[in-house]
Q: What sequence folds into this?
C-alpha cells in the first residue's frame, strides 16, 4: 500500500522527509472529501428512483468504507517512516469486537430502512381506507418506528451479550421511579392515546374546554400531540392544554358537523300581530348572506316579557368559528330591525306606570324647566282641592 502511493506521487526518494508524508496525507484527505462530495451530490437523483432511506444507508456505508480504506493508506504511509515498525492493516485485524460493531451497524441500518418502509405502508393504507385521521396516522407511524427500534435494541443486546434479565429488572425499578415522579405526564400520555382513538375533535375544530380555575376557554385546535392539545383563541392567544384536562372535563365541539345553529331573542309589542312578526323575521333572515338556506332559518314565540312578546330567531351558519358567529348575529339583528321598522312592527322598551295614592296626598311632578318648577299647578287636582286652592272653588 505504501509503495503504491509513493510511486504514484513520484516521491519515493522524499519519503524520509516529513513534508512528503504531510503532502501525501493531504492528497488522501482531498480524495476522501471529493468522493464523499460526489456521493452526496448524486444522492437526490437516486432518491427519486430508489427508497430514500436505502440511498442514505448505502451512501453512509460507502462513505465509511472509503474513509476506512484511505485511513488504512495513511496509517501505512506514516508507519513506513519507522523501518522496524509493524505493518498496519486494519482489514486484517477485525476481532470479535469488530464483528459486533459491523453487526450493530447492519442492524441499525436495517431498522432505519425497515421503519421507513413500514411508516410509508401505514400512510398508504390509511390514505386508501380513510379509517384514520392525519393525527392518528402520524401517531400510529411513530409507534411503529418505536416498535422497530425497540426490537433492534433487543437484538443488539443479545449481540453484545448483555444480561437481559438484569437489564429488565433495572428497567422495572426505573419504571416505578419514573411512574411516581411523572404521574401527571403519564396521565397526559394515556389521555393522548384516548383522544387518538375516541376522536372527539380534529385539527381545525372549534372547541370549548373548562379550565381548572373554573373558567372556560375556546378556540381553534391547531395541534394535537400525545401530551397536550394546542388551541388558538379568537383573541390571538395560544393555549396549551394537558390531554388529561381535556379528557376529564366536559368538552364542547362547535364545529363537529361543519355547521352551527345560533339563537337570538327579540321582542315585539303586545299590540302587534305575533304571526306577522314571525313571518317578517323569517323573510329578513333568508336575505342575510351569512345564514344557510338549509336548514331554513326559523322564528318561534318563546314567552311573554314585561313589555313584549319574545321571539327566538334560529338560524344556521357553516364552517363555524367565533368570528363567523358574531358576523352572522350582527347581520341578522340589523336585517330584522330594518324589516320590523319597514313593516311598522314596534320593538318596545321597558315601560313603567307611576300613580299616586289618594290617601298619601298625591305626589308632585318636578319640571325640567326652571320657570315652571314652583308653579302651583304642578300639584294634582285633588291635592289642590285638599289645600283649598281658590281656583278649584265653585263660582
A:
Amino acid at each position: 500500500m505504501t509503495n503504491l502511493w509513493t510511486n504514484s506521487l513520484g516521491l519515493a526518494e522524499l519519503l524520509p522527509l516529513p513534508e512528503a508524508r504531510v503532502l501525501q496525507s493531504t492528497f488522501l484527505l482531498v480524495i476522501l472529501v471529493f468522493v464523499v462530495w460526489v456521493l452526496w451530490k448524486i444522492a437526490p437523483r437516486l432518491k427519486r428512483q430508489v427508497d430514500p432511506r436505502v440511498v442514505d444507508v448505502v451512501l453512509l456505508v460507502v462513505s465509511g468504507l472509503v474513509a476506512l480504506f484511505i485511513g488504512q493508506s495513511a496509517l501505512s504511509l506514516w508507519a513506513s517512516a519507522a523501518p522496524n515498525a509493524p505493518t498496519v492493516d486494519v482489514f486484517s485485524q477485525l476481532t470479535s469486537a469488530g464483528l459486533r460493531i459491523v453487526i450493530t451497524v447492519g442492524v441499525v441500518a436495517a431498522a432505519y430502512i425497515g421503519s421507513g418502509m413500514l411508516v410509508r405502508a401505514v400512510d398508504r393504507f390509511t390514505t386508501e381506507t380513510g379509517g384514520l385521521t392525519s393525527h392518528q396516522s402520524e401517531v400510529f407511524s411513530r409507534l411503529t418506528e418505536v416498535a422497530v427500534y425497540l426490537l433492534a435494541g433487543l437484538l443488539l443486546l443479545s449481540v453484545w451479550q448483555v444480561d437481559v434479565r438484569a437489564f429488565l429488572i433495572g428497567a422495572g425499578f426505573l419504571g416505578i421511579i419514573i411512574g411516581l415522579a411523572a404521574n401527571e405526564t403519564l396521565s397526559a400520555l394515556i389521555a393522548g392515546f384516548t383522544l387518538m382513538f375516541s376522536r372527539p375533535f380534529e385539527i381545525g375544530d372549534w372547541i370549548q374546554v373548562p379550565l381548572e380555575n373554573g373558567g372556560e376557554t375556546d378556540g381553534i385546535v391547531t395541534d394535537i400531540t400525545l401530551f397536550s392539545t394546542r388551541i388558538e383563541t379568537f383573541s390571538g392567544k395560544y393555549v396549551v392544554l394537558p390531554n388529561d384536562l381535556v379528557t376529564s372535563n366536559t368538552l364542547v365541539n362547535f364545529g363537529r358537523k361543519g355547521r352551527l345553529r345560533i339563537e337570538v331573542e327579540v321582542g315585539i309589542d303586545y299590540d302587534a300581530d305575533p304571526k306577522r312578526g314571525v313571518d317578517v323575521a323569517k323573510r329578513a333572515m333568508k336575505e342575510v348572506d351569512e345564514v344557510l338556506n338549509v336548514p331554513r332559518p326559523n322564528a318561534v314565540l318563546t314567552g311573554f316579557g314585561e313589555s313584549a312578546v319574545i321571539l327566538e330567531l334560529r338560524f344556521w351558519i357553516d364552517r363555524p368559528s367565533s368570528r363567523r358567529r358574531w358576523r352572522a348575529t350582527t347581520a341578522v339583528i340589523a336585517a330584522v330591525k330594518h324589516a320590523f321598522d319597514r313593516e311598522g312592527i314596534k320593538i318596545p322598551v321597558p315601560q313603567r306606570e307611576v300613580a299616586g295614592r289618594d290617601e298619601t296626598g298625591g305626589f308632585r311632578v318636578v319640571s325640567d324647566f326652571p320657570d315652571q318648577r314652583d308653579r302651583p299647578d304642578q300639584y294634582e287636582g285633588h291635592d289642590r282641592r285638599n289645600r283649598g286652592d281658590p281656583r278649584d272653588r265653585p263660582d
